[in-house]
Predict the 3D structure of the following.
Amino acid sequence: MPTVAPLDLEGHCVAACWVANVPHFALADGVVHRLDNGHKHVEAHDGLLAASLAADGKVLLTGGEDGRVASLAPDGSFTELASIGRKWVTAVASGPQGAVAFASGRTAYVRFADGRLKELAHPRSVEGLAFAPKGMRIGVARYNGATLHFPATDGKPVELTWDGAHTGISFSPDGNFVVTTMQENALHGWKLADGKHMRMSGYPAKVKSWSWAAKGRWLATSGAPAAIVWPFTGKDGPMGKAPVELGTRGNTMVTSVACHPTDEFVAIGYADGMVLAARIADQKEVLLRRAGNGAITSMAWDAEGRRIAFGSEAGDCGVIDIAG
């Protein structure tokens, strides 16, 4: 039976993650908590924060309402990477070769490992950022689509157009597809080889959480009373295919998903704080945590795929050990 080590905090958990195998919980008030031989915390930002785990899993990247971007090491020490004055940093993302991207207003910034800062201006506000899995390429979610930049060069960006407000962006692990979340209850995608569109709709709520399966064959999403898992097994992704539905629970909405690091099953968090795990192949379910306080807002597996860090909108956080 799985065991749960609770951590009761006050405030909305923006990101639950593992930094060098230590569970961290970044809250919206700018404080980052960690469970490392006891409960410790550090004030990362003065005011609201955005957070993202670095690609190597060894530091936590944060940006804040105070205009600062920083990296948090496992020992709790902070290194300031950039400061843009009193501008609210609304998104951060880590990339290859030590690159970091962040956004404020209509500008996306890329900070290279040598400290150089490149500004990428857009006509409307930058809502989401993601680096491609290969090469120095960054995707920006914006109004009416997405823009792909090669920030190390001055080459012309690639514009991917679809009407509506696009709020988040992700590349498939093989780099063949770009998918965005939208302000409406839908996802949109593009096949990069030929620009074909993929419309993934029918959600009763906005998609606020998504996660790629280990081999990139599936994309799990929130936004419905089940985890909606889209197949990316063929050359055209989910076009013309129905998704798999995991962990259906009446009218209780799925609010967070996290795919296992090596196997094709998904941790599913709900609006009532419950957490299940479900296998994609046969939809078999295992209860990991009973209902708690607040909707689950973030979850992450450790590198071994044995423990899950989780956080809720009410600060109801903790670690689930699936081996008990």
